[in-house]
Design a protein that fits this description.
mainly alpha, 20 helices, globular
Length: about 350
Amino acid sequence: MNSKIDVIEDRLKNLANSLPLGLFKGRLGVCLYLCNKGKDEIASELLNTVNEHLQSMKGEISVSDGLSGVGLAVDYLIKKGYIKGNTNTVLQEIDNLIFRQLAFDKYSKIYDINQLLPILYYLSVRWESQKKDSEAEYLFRELIKKTVNNLYSRTDFQKISEPLHYSLDYVIPQLFYVMGYVASLGFYKNRIEMIMRELSPLLFSIVPRIHANRLYLLTGLDYLLKEIPMEGEGNRYRGLLLTSIDVDYLLTEEMGCKSIYVENGVASLYFLLKAVKEYAGNRINYRNKIMQIIEESPEWDLLERDNAYLRSHTGLYNGVCGVAWAYDVMEKDKRKEEKEK
């Protein structure tokens, strides 16, 4: 398996230069992957090309393709020691541009719930990095509150539907994750709890058609309930989701070799299964099955043979970098467990 990844990695540098700049499907995602693999020189070259073209992203603040994604990537690289600098200083210009987009209603209203949830996560990460009682902490806190209320006021909550296939773009699990994360910050917890309790009759009545989406929803719910215990309705809904998931069916029938990518495939399912405490006893079996699916996937032949196909399946979210990173984590988990025996 690693030999297949190595062959593709040798082509990443040339391919990455033709990709967009963004985190999910572009150069930034490839840069993070290469840093994680210890290929710092190539990663540094990619990061420089992103920096040179940041001006072209000024109007785009999404996490997937825009400035919030750049901010998250830079924050990660600094915290991991791949690049040096003060996070708040490095990200000041990006933060200012995001504030200008979100602080005024005429701009913020152009973003739908799918775009606002990841941006709200970025704002929350940045709030945690600010000095306590500083002006920056106050500004981030107020923008987080405004964005939460902006989300709450949207009528499109009632239009949320399950994707036709398993996808991390499914809005309701994202809502559970992000609202749980914002609640964990403390300063707006009561407001978040009020919102989620008001929405619970709608949200807790949904059981997705696809088992993988049920699993995604369950992990998001667990994250929310950790911060906002909703003993009665929340626990009942959790039990309903848990008993409705057949993991063996999910892996063999729903997924099989259909997708290995993070966005909609088995690479992300490993982390969802790992997060659910009830699956701890079967985690090794599930991991081995997922690794086998990745290893035996016909995707690798396509990726090696077809440059155009590899270019469109290169990124962290929808491509080989995300799969290879996830597979590397699985291998490390496996080696760690073998040492502990």
